[in-house]
Amino acid sequence: MVSAKNLTKNYGDFSLNVTMDLPKGRISGLIGKNGAGKSTVIKSILGLICPDGGSIKVFGKDSKELTPEDKQKIGVALSDSGFSNYLTLRDCAKILDKMYDRFDRQDFLATCRQYGLPENKIIQKFSTGMKAKLRVLVALSHGAKLLIMDEPTVGMDVEARNEILDMIRDYLMKEEECSVLLTSHIATDLEGLCDDIYLIHQGKILLHEDTDVILSDYAVLKVEESQFRKLDQKHILKWKKESFGYSCLTNQKQYYLENYPGMVVENCGIDELILMMTGGK
Questions:
Q1: Which residues touch 239 (CB under 8 Å, ≥6 apart)?
Q2: Exposed (0-12), middle (13-18) or buried (19+): which is 114, by Cβ within 10 Å?
Q3: Model-level pTM?
Q4: CB 127 within 8 A of CB 155
Q5: CB of 30 within 8 A of CB of 185?
Q6: Are 34 and 48 in contact (CB under 8 A)?
Q7: I need a labelling partner for 199 at 20 to 30 A (CA). Which of 31, 32, 140, 151 fits?
């Protein structure tokens, strides 16, 4: 669905160089610290900024050659809904009806009501959670085959986050071939939704792995100094010096469980993966 090869962009001291693929029917998470390059990747795919080098193909075409019909197949949820704060949902629905062939005005308004969004209140008076829901519902409103979502649950409480994730899951049950690129700082969102994870740091992809592999095979070993010196490190990806000794990231949890029965082996989630990959040696 999307293929970026040696995508480069330079901003002063920052340099991006990324290769990634988003296959049909997969949900990919793009994670990393603030300033790692996530927004640059997203904006490059969407054509909002012009890369300095490399290639981006969307639906098998160069991103610069997408037709209006191609662009109708892309749903986007960025930092705002794209609508004036002085519009109501009915106003938004009229605009969307003119923009997208597959948009159903009545279905959109019914879905908005389902998630507690008032039809006749202007967007300016929406709560933060309501605005977040609107961003996602607009992205899902026209049968998109590619969804690009940048921090769709940022600033939400648990209930609102779950509602937004349910929106995405419900949509993907209907549009099984849709591909999704999702960024988030909330590990549980990614672990429960994404098929695979890209970890970006300082403009480079440090790791690309299936989410279920991360959750099943990755682990953090907690070892004392003496244990570390005797440790077989052939499966250690990164290590960090700690007050108690060392933390060691591995993608072969079972190997260390079987061969070092007295060692502390902790399961590795997305948060631990980011900390170890970006802060370890």
A1: 228, 233, 246, 247, 248, 249, 280, 281
A2: exposed
A3: 0.92
A4: no
A5: no
A6: no
A7: 140
